[in-house]
Amino acid sequence: MAPRKSTRGKAPMEQLATKNPRVAPRSINKYTVQCEKCSKWRVISTVEEYEEIRCKMEESPYVCACDDPANIEYNATRTWAIDRPGILKTPEGFTRSLEVRRDFSRIDAKYIAPTGKKLRTLNEIAVFIEENPTYKDVKLSDFSFTSPKIIEDTIPEDVN
Ligand SMILES: [Zn+2]
């Protein structure tokens, strides 16, 4: 099954979920960005670098070393999910975690606080900041629970 042709322009960032649906936990295992100029997909090696690109995407679209051969192809051998550009970088000390639901219906975003506490809503984050004055300078607006949208055409066929 071939994936939808081009997603560029609308949502130029993509993330890949795991290849094998039976391997748990199904989390994002590769971060990729599409070049604005040559349309090649590029694997971004760290989530920090990826978040940096994603947060600036709207003002400064990503451009690669276009002469280099592509290091990943956009096709249905992997499950892909489109991320929203503009989501801010995860505040220092916190980890943003994305988990793909068993049935591939959606991806859930949560944050893990420096203490290890899992935070699933903005309200939980607000309470955490209030209870932990060390993080009083962390802004609530730096957090986003907007999760990448799974591209249906790339969901493995044996998933119910
Ligand atoms: Zn390029």
Major sheet: order of its strands?
Answer: 3-2-1-4-8
CATH superfamily: Methyl-cpg-binding Protein 2, Chain A
How many strands, what sense, and barrel or not for the largest sheet? 5 strands, antiparallel
CATH topology: the name is Methyl-cpg-binding Protein 2, Chain A
Low-confidence stretches: 1-13
Helix share, percent: 10-25%
Bound molecules: zinc ion
Number of domains: 1
**How many beta-strand runs?**
8
Roughly how many Å apart are the termini?
A: 17 Å
Question: Taking all residues together, what is the mean pLDDT?
Answer: 85
What is the CATH class designation? Alpha Beta
Q: How many whole angstroms does the radius of gyration measure?
A: 17 Å
How do the helices and strands follow one another from N- to C-terminus?
A: EEEHEEEEHE
- Under the CATH scheme, the architecture is 2-Layer Sandwich
Overall geometry comes to globular
How much of the residues is beta strand, in percent?
15-25%
Number of helices: 2
Task: Please state the structural category.
Answer: alpha+beta
